[in-house]
Amino acid sequence: MKHIKIANTDLQVSNLIMGNMRLNQLSITEAEKLIRTAMDEGINFFDHADIYGQGRCEEIFSQAIQMSPSIREKMVLQSKCGIVTSEGYFDFSKEHILESVDGILKRLNTDYLDILLLHRPDALMEPAEVAEAFSMLHTSGKVKYFGVSNHNPAQIELLQKFVPYKLIINQLQFSIAHTPMIDAGITLNMKKDQAINRDSSILEYCRLHDITIQAWSPFQHGFFEGVFLGDMERFPELNKTIASLAEKYGVTNTAIAVAWITRHPANIQVVLGTTNVQRMQDACKGSDIRLTREEWYRLYKAAGNIIP
Length: 308
Ligand SMILES: NC(=O)c1ccc[n+]([C@@H]2O[C@H](COP(=O)([O-])OP(=O)(O)OC[C@H]3O[C@@H](n4cnc5c(N)ncnc54)[C@H](OP(=O)(O)O)[C@@H]3O)[C@@H](O)[C@H]2O)c1
Fold this sequence. Notes:
Elements: E1 3-5, E2 12-14, E3 16-19, H1 28-40, E4 45-47, H2 56-65, H3 69-72, E5 76-81, E6 83-84, E7 89-90, H4 94-108, E8 113-118, H5 127-139, E9 143-149, H6 153-162, E10 167-173, H7 180-186, H8 202-208, E11 212-216, E12 220-221, E13 226-227, H9 236-249, H10 253-262, E14 269-272, H11 277-284, H12 293-302
Parallel strand pairs: 3-4, 3-14, 4-5, 5-8, 8-9, 9-10, 10-11, 11-14
Antiparallel strand pairs: 1-2, 6-7, 12-13
Helix pairs in contact: 1-2, 1-11, 4-5, 5-6, 9-10, 9-12, 10-11
The structure holds NADP nicotinamide-adenine-dinucleotide phosphate.
NADP nicotinamide-adenine-dinucleotide phosphate (NAP) binds near residues 272, 273 and 276.
């Protein structure tokens, strides 16, 4: 398992993350097995959100691992707030952020979060209010570091103008079958859909500002439209190319899908959503495979993209 340092922190972390959004599909015993497998493979970073399973995923996590100070210190725990799923809106108010973190800490059975992310942009955000909430959380020791998810460069700059802590993470959707972050750069200035700059060059912005990118839904296409691995109807070329590289490297297709992301020089972390122990082990084999440039671009083209 490859480890990286998160810029502007003292955190040394695995480049793969165990995502816990689907943990409520498992019993406590199954969840324990999955978490232990991830840790045995070298994963030390766990991603949560207050809304996953309406809080149940965080509870299952801490119960399954029987959270204690000695286990806690082996983990980097990240969670997110700012979405009110029950009503369908976003809330970055000071009250909501503070209340959300208290709930997260209680459910995870811990005194502090290593990282808190704002989950999705709130159009009604008042950055000074967010800054006040972050300062209270940091001063009280409840949160060490802060970041965002699904934010564009201007949204980050607006927040950063007020927040007195460096924003260190941006979690964004990225997989071989979902590549808007790189498409526009590759087809710059062309009259093609692929050339539309949908996120104001967020990848380059994060690299310029030492913000670590985390890729969510590494095996999905569209917005939760399904898994591209094994989908021969929609992704025949991609699956054939993945299979041939899996054979070359002696790993599964899952590992190649992971390796395509970890090959990027931005040191992107991959947030794995699997609930399956075997798939967790397979995915981890992709952590430090270094695809050649030609292989990386071959996969990109096989997903239906053009190289001018
Ligand atoms: N910031 C955000 O807005 C945001 C949004 C979504 C998710 N996330 C984070 O990202 C993590 C990962 O997201 P995700 O769960 O959507 O990602 P994912 O890892 O791409 O998808 C996992 C799902 O795909 C299935 N799957 C994977 N490979 C498969 C295969 N070869 N055949 C059949 N099924 C396969 C898994 O089934 P099995 O369980 O059976 O393996 C699981 O249901 C989440 O846990 C969460 O932490 C963040």
